[in-house]
Fold this sequence. Notes:
single chain; 11 helices; mainly alpha
Amino acid sequence: MQNLLGLLANAPLLALAAMAIGYLLGSIPFGLVLTRAAGLGDIRKVGSGNIGATNVLRTGNKSLAAATLLADALKGTAAVLIGMWIDPAAGTLAGVAAFLGHLFPVWLKFRGGKGVATFLGVALGLLFPAAIAFAVVWLGVAYISRYSSLSALCATAITPLVALALGRGDVALALAILAALSWYAHRANIARLMSGEESRIGGSSATASN
Length: 210
């Protein structure tokens, strides 16, 4: 945390550069780009209208959904690594900015995805064990509940706690901020989970988690 504060105080231009690069990377709407390239049209007019991998899966193209998931995750990881290359303390800023870019991409009038895959990618770049915990929790909850949104909520909630337990308070704070933003983006899913109206994995009606 002290390194990050020092960067902001002593080299604000480097910090801004890392954030700008992170945001631009994060704002690339891979779900939209890949579905259009595959001749499937505008993913925003399919299923939930979301640009994430879960909605891409609704097109029936599993390979394209997997590619979207991977690309959305790796753009978060790439942002962190580029930020660290700019300055060791700038990786966190770049990762947070990438997540914000995915949620609020300038190219899509600031209407993006819910950031689950990008959250994982940022966690992977910042603290590998935290990313592993995310994946384990997501898969476990998905297997038991069959709710993609619930899996995302649980995984994003546990990841900052893992970082904190590992003594990385700076990473825990960054991931907690991203988790709060992801939960806000999932507010409609939370309401449907509470009312019992959320669709399960493999369903076709309700809004997907990313």
